[in-house]
Amino acid sequence: MRGMTNRALSFDAVADQYDTSRPGYPPALFDTVEELTGRPLEGSRVVDVGAGTGIASRLLRERGARVTAVEPGPGMADRLRRSLPGMPLVRGLGDALPLADGSADLITYAQAWHWTDPLRSVPEAMRVLRTGGALALWWNVSDGGVPWIAAQGERLRRQVGGGAHSAPGRGRNLPRELAPTERRVPWNRRVPLDTHLANLASHSVFRVLGEEATTAFLERERAELLKLFPDGTVEEAYAVELTVVLRAPSPSAP
Q1: Comparing 135 with 20, which gets the higher pLDDT?
Q2: Looking at the domain assignment, is residue 134 inside a domain?
Q3: What pTM did the predictor assign?
Q4: Is 66 exposed, middle or buried (0-12, 13-18, 19+ CB in 10 A)?
């Protein structure tokens, strides 16, 4: 897991870029979280793990949740402190949460579950959740059914052998006995071309590619996208892939 942890921490180098260019999440996502957990976010004790710069933490707080952010990276944590002053923040990993048993109504992982070892992070989440609490995992995934997004994805695969568009899989490595529920929430946003390219460059595949190759790829992308969006505004299409697991009572509980 050390290699995965180091790759996750590589986001520290682009914390400001990550915060200003990465997409947020639509209101419908949080409506769906409330539906599947059976509890309003208003007043809930929420732990946002792998909080990064606080993109999801901010939106959860705006829904009235009492949010504690958990983030291992010093650069990301510093950006979160600056953008969300006063939000409780602890440094830690999902594989070893520095939190008390039964202290959370909801644990969220926004774009972060795939950096954990589920053999450790699942028991940790169940430990920190109260009985009846919930674990929610989600990823923004670009809609490959849109022709220009599919074409960009193919260029990414040729360049780096992977992509910045796909999620690592909903409910990745969750035991079946947890009975996860999955939903897909479509949405879109319109952003300047520079923001779109900065978003691409903030993904981990480019952190290992190197500055020169990344710059060359982004300049080629700029030329390609200006053919489609000559006014310099890109319409990005996403779906949030959401997985929710409820913490059932222990079999030994009365």
Answers
A1: 135
A2: yes
A3: 0.86
A4: middle
Q: Sheet of 233-246: strands edge to edge?
A: 89-90, 66-70, 45-49, 104-110, 129-142, 233-246, 181-192
Predicted pLDDT at 4 = 43
Query: Which domain covers residue 117, as residue numbers?
Result: 2-142+166-188+238-246
CA distance 190 to 156: 21
User: Can you spell out the DSSP letters for the chain?
Assistant: -HHHHHHHHGGGGGHHHHHHHS----HHHHHHHHHHHTS-STT-EEEEET-TTTHHHHHHHHTT-EEEEE---HHHHHHHHHHSTT--EE--BTTB--S-TT-EEEEEEES-GGGS-HHHHHHHHHHHEEEEEEEEEEEEEE-TTSHHHHHHHHHHHHHHSS-SS--S-TTTT--GGG--EEEEEEEEEEEEHHHHHHHHHTSHHHHTT-HHHHHHHHHHHHHHHHHH-TTSEEEEEEEEEEEEEE-PPPTT--
The structural domain count of the chain equals: 1
